Fold this protein.
Amino acid sequence: MKTTLKKTMAALSAAAVVAASAAVMAVPTSAAGVSLTMGSKTLTLAELKAANYQVTLPIGVTDSINSVGFGVTLGEGLTYVDLEASVKKATCLAATNDAGNFVFAPFAYATVPLKAVSGQIAAITVEVSKDAKAGDTFTLSIDGKDSDGVETSYKNGETGDSGVPGGGAGTITIVEDPTEPTTEATTAAPTATPVAATTTAAKVATATKKAAKSTSSPKTGDALPVAGVAVAVAVIGGVALVAKKRK
């Protein structure tokens, strides 16, 4: 929601009064202090286009508060779209300068009974330039100052702590769209048809040994060569035939 800077400052003052009236103790300055934080986001160019070039970032505080005023400076390539409170029942009114690169907003949270809040308190939406490309980074800075550089303050209504909040910064980074890994087709090497091995049996040279003539009759139990046996059978047969004729 947009309004004028004067109305915004008035709303901030009213919020501070509400928080102060709810507090029951003195208002010392916080020794530890509270800082404002700005979120960051990384997205691909495709994601940015799908979101119509709009990106939302969280705004937070490092300690418990009930009210705080903050200014957000948008870096080159960013345009303000919207800013809303992230805490239920809290109010957060935003006003921009003519250039649209600075936003001032007071945040106030006053419940009954009074409770302070910490962490994310608001969210800002900005539009990124349509000329954005992978590798670009856009910066948003936040602090407790208005458009004239006047410091504002935070207040914790429960403890009475107050002070000027510290600042911070966030970024929007555009990265390359992921690429599908290229898979090269693998051609299988031709399979050779196995050839049956032809085995040629080597001829074994066999030495033929001529049987030696024996002049003596073989003894009983002596083994005769095959050739010798054949000769012996023939001789025995011849002797038997001669013996038969003589009878």
Remarks:
- The chain is about 20% helix and 30% strand.
